[in-house]
Structure formats: structure tokens, C-alpha cells
């Protein structure tokens, strides 16, 4: 029995992935708008019966560079608004990052100490949430790729 | 003037005691939280970005007046049971909690059978 338990344990990944709970209401929070001193509430960002993509990113995050082209592609979709959550970043470096790779975000909010990311149940960067009607429809941990792009496009149709 | 000084000193000491109590509660809570991106470390022990953010969130929630249990529920709701080092007694953890008792009973029964019954 012990051999069986250890044998099964070997097959499991030792990297923890949080339980993805879809159809969960988005958190209510206040955040500072990128490059301004304006404080905005989440209800002002996420309107009802609309699709949003919340992308947690940072200029120091290497995988964020890899997924950026997918975000640019998704920014062309008319019925989807992309919200960027700039995580523990330097404003100047974040600005340079967007100038270099172009800006796919409709709105960018900042998370200087990472507490907003915790409210969302995120544990790192990059992480992406597809939201509809103020509910999380899909959560993507790690960088976006071709298959997640197709999945998002399919859901947003 | 002396009468005025007394409440000020009282408020100062009260806030000092309150902040110390919150700080020790924060340490107690973070010691019972697993750092999800670290290998075998608690949030209290870890210096990762994730752990540092969680420490701030726990402090904020304590300042807002949330109880220890409410904070655990808040984090469990977002990250699942795995974030807690001390799992709750429910249908998924029955085996985990009851296994030591079960082993104790089986062991006791074996000892009883081998020594007591044999002796008689």
C-alpha cells in the first residue's frame, strides 16, 4: 500500500497549481490608474454584460514578453477590452516595455505591493483572467499561447 | 494640562499594544500559510514576491478587523485548502486525520493479541 502511494506520488507534479474556480465573482478593489494619481474602483472598470481580459504583467517578467504578441492580436477584437494589471513594477520601465512592444491594454492599473493580485487569487506573473458579467469565465496561469488564444477567441465570439 | 496629558498617554499605549497584538497575529497566521511558489516554506519564512504580498494582505485584513478564521477563509477561497498548513476536518481529510488513530488501534490490538492473550 505504501509502495502504491509513493508510486502514485511520483507521477504527480510537485508544482502547485491553484484550483481554477470559474464563474466566480471578481473581487471589489480600488487601484491607481497607470501614470496618473487617479484611483479607480473595479466596478468602474468592469461593466456588466461585457467581456474583459485582465492580464497581470510586469516589465521584469520574461514570459510576459513571449505572450505580448497574443495580447496584441486579442486587442483587435471589438467585443473584448484588455485590462492590464502592472505588478510590482517601475513605471518608467513599464512605459518603455509598452513603447517597445506596443500597448494592447484599454486600461492599465497598478499593483505596487501585489495585494490586488492576491485579491484575484493570482500567485505570479503572467496570469490572465477572462471576465464576463463581472464573473471569471477562464483563468490562464502562465503566458498565453496559441491554444489559449484560440480558446479565448472561441469564448468571446 | 496634566488632565489632558493622561488620555494622550493612554491612547499612545493602547495603540502600541494594539499594533503589537496585530503584528504577533500576523506572524501566527503567516506561519500557518504555505508559500505556494516555494519549496517547503511557509509565507512567514519566505521572502518571495508572493509571500511578501500575502504578508501585506494579512496585515491589511487584520487592520480592517477581520478575525484569524475570516482571513483563512478569504485565502482558502482564492487559493484552495493547500494554502493552509493545518487542514480542516472534512470529507477530503478524514483519512489524513483518522489514520494515526487507526494505526494506534491496530498496533494496540496486535500488542494485546501477542502479549496479553498469549500470557493468559
Describe this structure in words.
The complex is a heterodimer of chains A (157) and B (120). Chain A is an alpha+beta fold. Chain A has a single domain (23-156), classed as Glutaredoxin, CATH 3.40.30. In chain A, 35% of the residues lie in helices and 27% in strands. Chain A contains 6 helices and 8 strands, in the order αβββαβαβαβαββα. Chain A has helices at residues 2-11, 42-45, 62-74, 91-101, 115-120, 146-156, and strands at residues 24-25, 30-33, 39-41, 51-57, 80-87, 107-111, 127-132, 135-141. Chain A has an 8-stranded mixed sheet with strand order 1-8-7-4-5-6-2-3. In chain A, strand 7 (127-132) and strand 8 form a beta hairpin. The radius of gyration of chain A is 17 Å and the shape is globular. The mean pLDDT of chain A is 90. Chain B is built from 4 helices and no strands. In chain B, helix 1 (2-31) packs across helix 2. Chain B is elongated, with a radius of gyration of 23 Å. Chain B folds into 2 domains: 2-87, Cytochrome C biogenesis protein (Helicase, Ruva Protein, domain 3, Orthogonal Bundle); 89-120. Chain B has 120 residues and is mainly α. The model of chain B has no long low-confidence stretch (mean pLDDT 83). The termini of chain B are far apart. Helices cover 69% and strands 0% of the residues of chain B. The chains are: A alpha+beta (157), B mainly alpha (120). The interface between A and B is medium-sized, with 15 and 16 residues.
Amino acid at each position: 500500500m505504501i509502495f502504491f502511494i509513493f508510486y502514485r506520488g511520483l507521477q504527480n507534479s510537485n508544482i502547485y497549481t491553484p484550483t481554477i474556480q470559474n464563474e466566480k465573482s471578481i473581487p471589489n478593489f480600488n487601484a491607481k490608474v497607470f501614470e496618473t494619481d487617479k484611483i479607480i474602483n473595479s466596478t468602474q472598470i468592469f461593466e456588466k454584460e461585457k467581456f474583459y481580459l485582465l492580464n497581470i504583467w510586469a516589465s521584469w517578467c520574461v514570459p510576459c514578453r513571449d505572450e505580448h504578441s497574443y495580447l496584441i492580436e486579442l486587442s483587435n477584437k471589438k467585443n473584448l477590452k484588455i485590462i492590464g494589471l502592472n505588478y510590482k513594477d517601475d513605471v518608467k520601465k513599464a512605459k518603455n516595455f509598452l513603447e517597445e512592444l506596443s500597448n494592447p491594454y484599454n486600461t492599465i492599473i497598478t499593483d505596487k505591493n501585489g495585494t490586488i493580485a492576491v485579491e484575484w487569487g493570482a500567485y505570479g506573473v503572467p496570469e490572465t483572467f477572462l471576465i464576463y458579467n463581472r464573473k471569471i469565465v477562464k483563468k490562464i496561469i502562465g503566458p498565453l499561447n496559441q491554444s489559449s488564444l484560440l480558446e479565448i477567441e472561441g469564448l468571446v465570439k | 494640562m496634566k488632565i489632558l496629558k493622561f488620555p494622550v498617554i493612554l491612547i499612545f499605549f493602547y495603540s502600541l499594544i494594539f499594533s503589537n497584538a496585530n503584528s504577533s497575529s500576523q506572524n501566527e497566521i503567516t506561519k500557518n500559510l504555505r508559500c505556494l511558489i516555494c519549496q517547503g516554506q511557509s509565507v512567514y519564512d519566505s521572502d518571495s514576491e508572493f509571500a511578501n504580498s500575502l504578508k501585506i494582505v494579512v496585515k491589511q485584513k487584520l487592520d480592517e478587523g477581520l478575525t484569524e478564521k475570516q482571513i483563512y477563509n478569504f485565502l482558502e477561497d482564492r487559493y484552495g485548502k493547500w494554502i493552509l498548513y493545518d487542514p480542516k476536518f472534512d470529507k477530503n481529510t478524514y483519512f489524513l486525520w483518522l489514520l494515526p488513530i487507526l494505526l494506534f488501534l491496530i498496533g494496540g490490538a496486535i500488542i494485546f493479541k501477542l502479549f496479553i492473550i498469549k500470557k493468559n
